[in-house]
């Protein structure tokens, strides 16, 4: 049961990250600007600098690495700062805005909990 939940969470998060990463390049999902003036300034600075492309590449790369079982931990590490920054931005500046940021955050927490339980169990039995 845990493996099924973990696989579903991994696939959903990977697909979300790949789609939202590609959206930064192609713009097929319209995104409303945040209501807060500080958040608008941050987003404006991000759009006009290299940071937007770096985040898009990290989302796509992390999503692809998450899908491959041997590189799942590296994908998790790549997505860790991305998810943290998404969560921190929305909590600080755009909490009332669209709630789509909650889905990747919840999926990431589920994956983290289940994945580290598996690692701890493997270390107990001497597999790692």
Automatic annotation (TrEMBL):
<feature type="transmembrane region" description="Helical">
    <location>
        <begin position="73"/>
        <end position="93"/>
    </location>
</feature>
<feature type="transmembrane region" description="Helical">
    <location>
        <begin position="49"/>
        <end position="68"/>
    </location>
</feature>
<dbReference type="GO" id="GO:0030416">
    <property type="term" value="P:methylamine metabolic process"/>
</dbReference>
<feature type="transmembrane region" description="Helical">
    <location>
        <begin position="7"/>
        <end position="29"/>
    </location>
</feature>
<feature type="transmembrane region" description="Helical">
    <location>
        <begin position="99"/>
        <end position="116"/>
    </location>
</feature>
<keyword id="KW-0812">Transmembrane</keyword>
<protein>
    <submittedName>
        <fullName>DoxX family protein</fullName>
    </submittedName>
</protein>
<dbReference type="GO" id="GO:0016020">
    <property type="term" value="C:membrane"/>
</dbReference>
<keyword id="KW-0472">Membrane</keyword>
<keyword id="KW-1133">Transmembrane helix</keyword>
């Amino acid at each position: 049961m845990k493996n099924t939940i973990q696989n579903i969470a991994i696939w959903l998060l990977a697909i979300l990250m790949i789609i939202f990463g590609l959206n930064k390049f192609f713009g097929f999902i319209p995104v409303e600007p945040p209501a807060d003036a500080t958040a608008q300034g941050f987003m404006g600075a991000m759009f006009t600098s290299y940071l937007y492309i770096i985040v898009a590449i990290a989302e796509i790369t992390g999503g692809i690495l998450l899908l491959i079982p041997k590189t799942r931990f590296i994908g998790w590490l790549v997505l860790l700062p991305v998810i943290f920054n998404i969560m921190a931005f929305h909590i600080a500046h755009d909490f009332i805005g669209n709630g789509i940021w909650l889905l990747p955050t919840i999926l990431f927490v589920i994956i983290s909990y289940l994945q580290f339980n598996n690692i701890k169990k493997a270390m107990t039995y001497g597999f790692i």
